[in-house]
Write a structure and sequence with these properties.
The protein is of the alpha+beta class. The chain folds into two domains: 4-77 and 214-400, DD-peptidase/beta-lactamase superfamily (Beta-lactamase, 3-Layer(aba) Sandwich), CATH 3.40.710; 85-211, DD-peptidase/beta-lactamase superfamily (Beta-lactamase, 3-Layer(aba) Sandwich), CATH 3.40.710.10. It contains ten helices and 15 strands. The strands form four sheets. Strands 1, 2, 3, 4, 11, 12, 13, 14 and 15 form a nine-stranded antiparallel beta sheet that branches. A two-stranded antiparallel ribbon has the order 5-8. The longest helix is centred in the N-terminal third of the chain and has 16 residues, at 18-33. Mean pLDDT is 94; it is low at 1-8.
């Protein structure tokens, strides 16, 4: 289903073969033709140069118009690395320390309790509240060891409390979000368990409190404009709505209706953990900044040592913290300050290098940076239920091309 705007661009690279790069397009195009996904945009950069760029399939399955390289995607949790960078910029400016308790800046989160499930003699499960042993720190937010959780993934009594309190509602404001989060218990003692959570949403609000501006303004002025990420933000302006990539109405496997964020206007809740949109080329500029040790195209956002610090494993001294079956980075990975970080060659489900780092988004987006191979790879699609399969498949195809 290649279209005129979707013909793969391949440039000479001493470490990639044209035949194997073409196999990437052929494999994904076959899945598009089979109706597995509506389409995908892929970009691979090696040694600072784009060696592969391809847009396959359709932008909107209902309209059947071709997907273009500059299509705009809901990147969901690929917002997290951007917001984590924004927070660390404030750390470099001396505005806070990551060892600080979060309540120093967000007093609503002082005096939190931890919810512990207990089973009674009759088999009834109830929630008992116990004091925190150690307050969550800013570092805990950055590495998802804060004790917070998501109410939308899985089931537990604490997650039920999240839903009942309205923490998960997208129609609330950032202030209302904090008010609701402050009345629900933590899922774990801070600093004991990696749990994918609302931590980065809290980081976004922390940025607002310290900077004095809303999160969208801060990210735009401090990160997006300096890096010339002109098509990224928390919503898409009306004159660009025709570029928004859409999903199938129903998932091809489950038959369930697919619902994605409405990004056509400014949202009430500026989610630091999952509210942004971007393009493959824009996100490549962000990734190139990380590859460059905090600098790209004449602009420096962070120091080289700060980027090195963020992309190192911050769980290695915390026994048992990755033991949970919900540890999303998976075997062979730890977690840094906003990124999953590879800690071993073996053990993981796909090839890579020690020190490569990545993250992904619920809608189907994914990126990673491999400093050993000097490689950046970006995958953009809008197919939530297919995301795990294509993250692994794309990695396999990219490394097979080296």
């Amino acid at each position: 289903m290649n279209k005129p705007d979707a013909i793969p661009s391949q440039r000479k690279s001493p470490s990639f073969t044209a035949e194997c790069l073409s196999r990437i397009s052929k494999t994904i195009d076959a899945d598009v033709s089979a109706g597995r996904i509506p389409g995908a945009v892929m970009v691979i950069a090696h040694q600072g140069e784009v060696v592969f760029e391809s847009a396959l399939g359709v932008r909107d399955p209902a309209a059947r118009d071709p997907l273009a390289i500059d299509a705009i995607f809901r990147i969901y949790s690929m917002t997290k690395p951007i917001v984590s960078v924004g927070l660390m910029m404030l750390v470099e400016e001396g505005k806070l320390l990551i060892s600080d308790p979060v309540s120093k800046y967000l007093p609503e989160l002082s005096g939190l309790k931890v919810g512990v499930e207990k089973t009674g003699a009759d088999g009834t499960i109830s929630l008992s509240l116990v004091p925190v042993e150690k307050e969550m720190t800013v570092q805990d937010l950055l590495r998802h060891t804060s004790g917070l959780t998501y109410g939308i993934f899985g089931e537990s009594l604490v997650k039920s409390e999240y839903r009942q309190a309205g923490v998960e509602r997208s129609s609330i404001t950032n202030s209302e979000f904090m008010e609701r989060l402050a009345i629900v218990p933590l899922a774990y003692q801070p600093g004991t368990t990696w749990e994918y959570s609302r931590s980065t949403d809290v980081l976004g609000i922390l940025i607002e409190r310290i900077s004095g501006v809303t999160l969208d303004v801060y990210v735009d002025e401090r990160i997006l404009k300096p890096l010339k990420m002109k098509d990224s933000g928390f919503w898409v302006p009306p004159d660009q709505h025709h570029r928004i990539a859409q999903a199938f109405q129903t998932d091809p496997d489950t038959g369930q209706r697919i619902r994605l964020l409405d990004v056509r206007s400014k949202p009430s809740f500026l989610s630091g953990g999952g509210g942004m949109v971007s393009t493959a080329r824009d996100y490549l500029r962000f990734a190139n900044m990380l590859r460059g040790g905090g600098a790209y195209d004449g602009v420096r956002l962070l120091s080289r040592k700060t980027v090195q610090y963020m992309t190192s494993d911050h769980l290695c001294t915390m026994p048992g913290v990755t033991a949970s079956p919900t540890f999303l980075p998976g075997p062979g990975y730890g977690f840094g300050l906003g990124f999953a970080v590879r800690t071993s060659i073996g053990g993981a489900y796909s090839p890579g290098s020690i020190g490569d780092f990545n993250w992904s988004g619920l809608g189907g987006t994914y990126f990673w940076i491999d400093p050993v191979e000097d490689l950046i790879a970006i995958w953009m699609m809008q197919a939530p239920e297919q995301r795990a399969h294509y993250r692994q498949l794309y990695r396999n195809l990219v490394y097979a091309a080296i």
